[in-house]
Amino acid sequence: MTDYIHAVIWDLDGVIIDSGEEHKRSWYRVAAEEGLPFSDQQFDATFGMRNDAIIPLIWGVTDKKRIQELADKKEVYYREFIHIAATALPGALELLSALKEAGYKQALASSAPGKNIEAVSAALGLEQYLDVLVSGETVPHGKPAPDVFLKAATELGVEPAHSLVIEDAVAGVQAAKAGGMFCLAVAGERDLPGLRAANLVVKSLAEVKVATIRQGFLVYPKVPKE
């Protein structure tokens, strides 16, 4: 392969599947049962982060055991909701398939717990396209730190500088940039300034073809610096 990009590393929520509503419902359910406050604003500000970062931030909980209890409860509810609602976003499965056929290595690297990743992967048949699955639970630091993406690149056997991350969250774009990787951001109808730090921003993956990746990122001799 002569492309500068040798591997594609996918985020999950908001990129392959839109389960933001299921996450939000799960957080609200935990909050209601525990008598804790929660708002759409808090959800928007923390979406894409790991639970062990979200819970201290929104509820001020610092005890590790308590954080894990709340996180586990939230994820049980999430898997209940997603079991009946797993639908791939437009263009995602098509691009996964086309990239595999073109010979690109591919990984799924998400802040989500491993059980969530496995549940969605099974529901959508993602493993036929992917070489590696990496959960944010397995690395020291969550996004915007680059740990989960760097681990994915290592497991794929590809240098970060030859890797493309597909993300939809500002924290994910920041993580990709911090890891020295190229980044394609899926913005949908949102206009988030933080997404503009990506090398390429699209509304939908339906706009993206293998040629987009093969040609669009060859113009950069190296990852652009801020």
Automatic annotation (TrEMBL):
Q: Which InterPro entries match?
A: Beta-PGM-like (IPR051600), HAD-like_sf (IPR036412), HAD-SF_hydro_IA (IPR006439), HAD_sf (IPR023214), PGP-like_dom2 (IPR023198)
Keyword set for this entry? Carbohydrate metabolism, Magnesium, Metal-binding
Under Gene Ontology molecular function, one entry of this record is: metal ion binding
**Superkingdom field:** Bacteria
The protein here is known as: Beta-phosphoglucomutase
Keyword Glycosyltransferase in the entry? The reply is no
PANTHER family attached to this UniProt entry: 6-PHOSPHOGLUCONATE PHOSPHATASE (PTHR46193), HEXITOL PHOSPHATASE B (PTHR46193:SF18)
What family does the entry list?
Answer: Belongs to the HAD-like hydrolase superfamily. CbbY/CbbZ/Gph/YieH family.
| Pfam families for the chain | Hydrolase (PF00702)
Sequence intervals crossing the membrane: none
Cofactor(s) recorded for this entry are: Mg(2+)
